[in-house]
């Protein structure tokens, strides 16, 4: 049932900040009431919502709070798990690989009974339309869901927790118009079914009509619709700057939409719109020459091309590109290349003012002047990552503009911005357009398009047999027998079978072991081709160790060298072949249930694994950003160092968000977790262990009786 | 509940060694990001790796690059076991993805190197957090890395002969440089962005920076 939320004179200040993020807020929401908070930004909404969810304000965070927030008279910090939190960014709320595992997670953390969790999960997935009826299996990989579907998955997982309060932080801001209504309906259904108190922060007021009972205005109230047409161009567009001819765009040879033919002009803003997943960002990267076209071509006008041999941006080098085309990424943190705000601006001015490159003093002077123009002078010595969200956006757009490109592409510039930054951006783009730049922006923001009177280019999603289920079928192992083993068995038998071989360095034991291992693997159903595919890097490693020993062994002994190489293979081949295809979730379950390792550590690691593909995407964006900023000609090792730093910064950011999301689902509480998935072992597992011990014992035995035992080689 | 709960730097000195959820996720994701960086390093290093067998010590020079996850996670999170945890997470991820060092064996290597990096901080009871202890930790991890290789794959070569000695020296230096100095540089770089404000380690760096700016002003 719903609970009462009482916020009394509450203030919060983040560590190292002089200013309060929220000051003296008082707000009461009755049990079961449904309330919409409007006001775009500027009153610390995310801070308040996190505090209500009980995931902000504990002592060791170093922040400072005053006043109180209670849920039915219990301090919010102690009511964690009773409040379900839905965030703006759908992707950040996916914790595990599969739909079902995300849905059950909150219930497991709260220690709800297993059967009950399964019943609730089925109901919840049905309520949010993520069930078989809608063609979605519980085993579907969450990464194959659309933005709106992912957001609905977050709602389902909150429902399974049966919260007393559901709070939503701009849950529709990231979605295309089609996705918005489904998500709003799903939240309304969730609140109705659970009877929970509902508190939504959103600026899309119309969407919540008929659902909320009360509206409260907080912070700055701006009606963006008032700006429609106010910054539209007063003249017709200029000549053609960029054209797409039958352009097909996508990743890994797979086109995302239909081939596109269109022109982009100077003195014109074009807004690329379309549903999530139609490939708008991919298209913009392709237009900028940062991704190769799958088919067709991207050409710039002769005026922009000037003396370059090619009119295709993807053929240009980093410097030629940066002078002509600038690109602003959706996440500003992908864009930074220096460690001060001033450095960012200097880097941009080096592109537009090559004559200043040698005069550091003049460059700094000019950079400071430009920063002042964009109201960033005070921040010039700061680290760009430490700026506020609005300042980061302004800085990245400002740097792109100051590089004086002929064509500017911007991905979702107004996403998550407060009204002041929004208006500043509108003015910046209007001015740029009026000066003759060809501006292309990817956006969902209707008010932004209307304010600039932009030309709209709608990218249709490609309709194809949406058969993700094929990709989702699990491939545990090419061997049916191995696939039936507990993942822990696979993990440790691969290790066990090789480890005892360390005792003796001789050709006999190594060869017997390798032979036996090959026979067993073939009998298990691994084809020779598969084995070769899995183990070829080890063949190289074995050859390398042969060479090393024959060169550096005191006697250059070929027998010892051969023994080393064969043993390297015998030790590594099973360890690789058996683990290939293990599902990380199954392995984590086995670690917790069979080895009794701490579930907090194991599942946090599992959630971390899911970030790997996202970090790879981050890395790709970072490289593209360097290219577009004219910096892509550096030594490999310097590149490695700066990549490492950038990736780690983004990794820490992502993991901090991950910890919020996991805690909002009750993770880390002192409750005995329920285990929905059960890790099983059978007689087959014990047989596998026996075999894994028998093979090295047999090999060492043969070596012993044939007199070729060689204890630890030259080690002792 | 109408109380104020200010937490100042002085109150934070009686800090807890108990892991918070954010400590766990950050340490785990440092492990995950490290395995991505190891992979990048392998790309950068790939072209010269063929020379390993011929030039003694070359292999050692680069070895430290594969050791940085453990000390980095520990100096950021400052909780006992962080080095081992991050390194093991990285190793398990690598073994599941498949690499050229032999599947599950990576797990053992990771465990050994994580323990080595951890031991140094354990010896000072997790009370000292500075550049030199980090460099020492990286060096000891280098020692473990060298020892592990000679104990398993290179038994045929005298560990105390010229090749072994050359590799020992270069691996120690490499551990000190990459898992020590480089790690400290990464830590400062990350902390300056404000990404570590949830951590005492991050606030230490930022408080110093703002203090210095104020003094100048």
TrEMBL record, chain A:
* Gene3D superfamilies in the cross-refs: P-loop containing nucleotide triphosphate hydrolases (3.40.50.300)
Gene Ontology terms: cellular component: ATP-binding cassette (ABC) transporter complex
InterPro entries referenced in this protein's UniProt entry, alphabetically? AAA+_ATPase, ABC/ECF_trnsptr_transmembrane, ABC_transporter-like_ATP-bd, ABC_transporter-like_CS, ABC_transpr_CbiO/EcfA_su, ECF_ABC_transporter_ATP-bd, P-loop_NTPase
Q: Which GO terms describe its molecular function?
A: ATP binding; ATP hydrolysis activity; ATPase-coupled transmembrane transporter activity
Lineage, top-rank taxon, reads Bacteria
Q: Name the Pfam families for this protein.
A: ABC_tran, CbiQ
Swiss-Prot/TrEMBL keywords: ATP-binding, Membrane, Nucleotide-binding, Transmembrane, Transmembrane helix, Transport
Using the record's annotation, list all stretches that form the ABC transporter domain. 5-245, 242-486
Q: Which family does it belong to?
A: Belongs to the ABC transporter superfamily.
Q: What is this protein called?
A: ABC transporter ATP-binding protein
Give the originating organism.
Alloscardovia macacae
Taxonomic lineage from the root: Bacteria, Bacillati, Actinomycetota, Actinomycetes, Bifidobacteriales
TrEMBL record, chain B:
Segments spanning the bilayer are: 21-45, 57-77, 131-151, 163-188
Q: Give the superkingdom in one word.
A: Bacteria
Keywords of the record, alphabetical order, are:
Membrane, Transmembrane, Transmembrane helix
The answer to keyword Lipid metabolism applying to this record is: no
Q: What is this protein called?
A: ABC transporter permease
Protein's organism = Alloscardovia macacae
> Taxonomic lineage per UniProt?
Bacteria, Bacillati, Actinomycetota, Actinomycetes, Bifidobacteriales
């Amino acid at each position: 049932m719903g609970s009462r939320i009482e916020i009394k004179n509450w203030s919060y200040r983040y560590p190292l900040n002089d200013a309060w993020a929220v000051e003296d807020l008082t707000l009461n929401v009755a049990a079961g009431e449904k309330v919409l908070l409007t006001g775009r930004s500027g009153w610390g909404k995310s801070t308040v919502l996190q505090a209500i969810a009980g995931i902000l304000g504990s002592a060791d965070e170093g922040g400072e709070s005053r006043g109180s927030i209670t849920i039915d008279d219990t301090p919010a910090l102690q009511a964690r798990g009773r409040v379900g939190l839905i965030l703006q960014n759908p992707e950040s709320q996916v914790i595990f690989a599969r739909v079902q595992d995300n849905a059950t997670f909150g219930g497991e953390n709260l220690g709800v009974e297993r059967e009950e969790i399964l019943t609730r999960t089925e109901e919840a997935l049905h309520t949010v339309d993520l069930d078989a009826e809608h063609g979605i299996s519980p085993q579907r990989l969450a990464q194959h869901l659309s933005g709106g579907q992912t957001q609905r998955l977050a709602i389902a997982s909150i429902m399974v927790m049966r919260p007393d309060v559901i709070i939503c932080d701009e849950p529709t801001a990231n979605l295309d118009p089609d996705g918005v209504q489904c998500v709003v309906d799903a939240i309304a259904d969730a609140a109705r079914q659970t009877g929970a108190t509902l508190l939504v922060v959103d600026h899309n007021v119309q969407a919540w009509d008929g659902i909320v009972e009360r509206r409260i205005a907080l912070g700055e109230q701006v009606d963006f619709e008032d700006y429609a047409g106010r910054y539209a161009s007063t003249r017709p567009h200029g000549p053609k700057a960029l054209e797409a001819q039958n352009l097909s765009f996508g990743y890994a040879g797979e086109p995302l939409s239909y081939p596109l033919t269109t022109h982009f002009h100077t003195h014109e803003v074009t807004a690329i719109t379309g549903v999530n997943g139609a490939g708008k960002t991919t298209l913009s990267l392709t237009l900028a020459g940062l991704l190769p076209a799958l088919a067709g071509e991207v050409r710039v006008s002769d005026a922009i091309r000037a003396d370059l041999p090619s009119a295709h941006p993807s053929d240009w080098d980093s410097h030629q590109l940066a002078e002509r085309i600038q690109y602003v990424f959706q996440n500003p943190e992908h864009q930074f290349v220096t460690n001060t705000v001033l450095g960012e601006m200097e880097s941009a001015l080096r592109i537009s003012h090559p004559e200043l490159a040698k005069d550091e003093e003049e460059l700094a002077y000019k950079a400071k002047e430009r920063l002042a123009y964009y109201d960033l002078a005070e921040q010039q010595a700061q680290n760009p990552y430490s700026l506020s969200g609005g300042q980061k956006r302004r800085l990245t757009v400002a740097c792109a503009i100051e590089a004086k490109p002929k064509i500017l592409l911007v991905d979702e510039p107004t996403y998550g911005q407060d009204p002041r930054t929004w208006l500043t951006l509108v003015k910046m783009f209007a001015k740029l357009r009026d000066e003759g730049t060809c501006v292309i922006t990817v956006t969902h923001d209707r008010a932004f398009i209307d304010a600039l009177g932009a030309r709209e280019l709608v990218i249709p999603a490609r309709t194809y047999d949406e058969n993700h289920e094929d990709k989702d079928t699990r491939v545990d192992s090419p061997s049916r027998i191995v696939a039936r083993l507990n993942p822990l068995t696979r993990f440790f038998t691969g290790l066990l079978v090789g480890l005892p071989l360390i005792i003796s360095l001789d050709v006999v034991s190594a060869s017997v072991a390798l032979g036996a291992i090959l026979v067993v693997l073939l009998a298990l159903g691994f084809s020779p081709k598969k084995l070769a595919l899995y183990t070829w890097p080890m063949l190289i490693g074995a050859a390398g160790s042969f060479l090393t020993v024959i060169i550096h062994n005191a006697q250059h002994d070929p027998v010892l060298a051969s023994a080393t190489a064969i043993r390297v293979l015998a030790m590594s081949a099973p360890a690789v072949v058996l683990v290939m295809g293990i599902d990380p979730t199954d392995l984590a379950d086995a670690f917790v249930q069979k080895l009794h390792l701490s579930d907090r550590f194991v599942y946090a690691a599992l959630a971390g694994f899911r970030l790997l593909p996202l970090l790879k995407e981050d890395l790709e964006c970072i490289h593209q950003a360097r290219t577009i900023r004219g910096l892509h000609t550096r030594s490999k090792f310097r590149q490695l160092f700066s990549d490492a730093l950038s990736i780690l910064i983004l990794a820490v950011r992502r993991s901090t968000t991950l910890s919020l999301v996991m805690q909002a689902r009750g993770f880390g509480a002192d409750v005995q977790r329920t285990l929905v998935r059960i890790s099983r072992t059978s007689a087959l597992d014990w047989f596998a262990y026996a075999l894994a011990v028998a093979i090295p014992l047999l090999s060492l035995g043969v070596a012993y009786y044939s007199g070729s035992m060689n204890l630890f080689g030259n080690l002792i | 509940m109408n109380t104020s709960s200010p937490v100042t730097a002085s109150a934070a000195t009686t800090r807890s060694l108990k892991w918070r959820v954010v400590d766990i996720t950050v340490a785990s994701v440092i492990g995950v990001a490290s395995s991505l960086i190891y992979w990048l390093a392998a790309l950068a290093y790939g072209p010269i790796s063929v020379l390993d067998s011929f030039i003694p010590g070359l292999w050692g020079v680069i070895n430290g690059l594969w050791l940085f996850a453990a000390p980095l996670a520990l100096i950021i999170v400052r909780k006992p076991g962080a080095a081992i945890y991050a390194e093991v997470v990285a190793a398990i991820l690598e073994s599941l993805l498949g690499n050229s060092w032999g599947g599950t064996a990576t797990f053992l290597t990771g465990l050994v190197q994580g323990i080595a990096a951890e031991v140094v901080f354990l010896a000072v009871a997790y009370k000292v957090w500075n550049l030199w202890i980090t460099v020492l930790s990286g060096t000891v991890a280098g020692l473990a890395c060298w020892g592990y290789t000679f104990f398993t794959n290179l038994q045929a070569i005298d560990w105390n002969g010229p090749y072994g000695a050359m590799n020992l020296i270069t691996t120690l230096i490499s551990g000190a440089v990459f898992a020590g100095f480089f790690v400290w540089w990464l830590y400062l770089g990350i902390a300056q962005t404000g990404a570590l404000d949830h951590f005492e380690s991050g606030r230490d760096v930022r408080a110093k920076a703002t203090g210095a700016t104020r003094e100048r002003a």
